[in-house]
Amino acid sequence: MALSVIKRLSRNAASDECYTPCDQVIPILEYLDKDKTYYEATSGVSSQIVDGFKKHEYNIVPSGKKDFFTCLPEDVYDGIITNPPYSIKDNFIEHCYFLKKPFALFLPVASFQGGRRGQMFMEYGMSCLVYNYRVDFTGGGSPPFGNAWFMWGFDTMPVNNIRWVNNPKYRSSTDVITTLSGSVKIKSERTEKRFGSGADLTKFME
């Protein structure tokens, strides 16, 4: 079951809408610089990474309706932080390398392997910050796959290095996702039933 879901998420454009809960950005923040400004390349689709950065007072610029594949190095500020559509992740990785700016892409752990991206990893290098807990993208519990930040170009993360980190184990009982067509509220009844509405769940990272 899990394998079939990973394959579907990797190849089916209809399954690209896995929006990152805003508190899931916490582990990567220690690798970033508060004095720098980052670029969220897909925030025209979802604002949750932007919301997470703003919540923790880091600088990030949303992409709006700009096509990432038209971006030049000056468009992405000091680096790219995003959860790209899984069906075109290889295209994202390739364009990130082309821009030669630091980047962190939130992808399924299974993205370690793949003929095209594997060749890029071997040629240019790649590091990963692997999450200990699976991310509940939908609020339904029992997430089927693990995730990692695939990172390149950061002084704080040596090339071809893998690190494991605790991340928030549960998602907020209610998250609001902002899309180009409006706002959608994702409610996790499992979390609300266990901890109550509005509980601070970042304490469950350890």
Query: What's the helix count?
Result: 6
Largest sheet: 5 strands, mixed
Strand arrangement, major sheet: 3-4-6-5-7
Mean pLDDT, all residues: 81
- Shape call: globular
The fraction of residues in strands falls at 15-25%
| Rg, Å, rounded | 16 Å
Question: Low-confidence segments, ≥5 residues, pLDDT <50?
Answer: 1-12, 176-195
Order of helices and strands: HHEHEEHEHEEEEEH
Structural class: alpha/beta
What's the total number of strands? 9
Distance between the termini: 28 Å
Overview of the molecule:
The protein has 206 residues and is an alpha/beta fold. Helix content is 24%, strand content 21%. It contains 6 helices and 9 strands; from the N terminus they run H-H-E-H-E-E-H-E-H-E-E-E-E-E-H. The chain has helices at residues 2-11, 26-29, 48-55, 89-99, 115-124, 189-195, and strands spanning 37-40, 59-62, 80-82, 103-108, 127-131, 147-152, 162-165, 174-179, 182-187. The chain has a 5-stranded mixed beta sheet with strand order 3-4-6-5-7, with helices on one face. A two-stranded parallel ribbon has the order 1-2. It has a two-stranded antiparallel ribbon with strand order 8-9. Strand 8 (174-179) and strand 9 (182-187) form a beta hairpin. Helix 4 (89-99) packs parallel to helix 5. The radius of gyration is 16 Å and the shape is globular. The two termini are 28 Å apart.
Q: What descriptive keywords fit this protein?
A:
five-stranded mixed sheet, 9 strands, 6 helices, two-stranded parallel ribbon, disordered N terminus, 206 residues, alpha/beta
